[in-house]
Amino acid sequence: MESSLATQTSTQRDAPESFRYWVMRFVPNVLRGEFINVGVIVGGQDEWSIRAVDRANSRNILGVDLTECRAWVDELREEVEATQRLDIPGTVGAISRSRMERLSVFYNNTVQLVDGGPVAIDSADHGAEMLYDLLVATPEHEPQQRRKTQMNQGLEAVLDSWRARSPNRSFIRRPVVTVGRTSQRFDFSIAASSVALSQTWSFGGSDRQSANRLVKDIRSWSLAVHKMRSNGGLLSAGRDSKAPLEINRDIAIGVLVERPQHAILRDVYAEAQETWAELGIREFRDSQAYRVPEVLVPA
Question: Which InterPro entries does the record associate with it (predicted)?
Answer without folding.
Answer: DUF3037 (IPR021398)
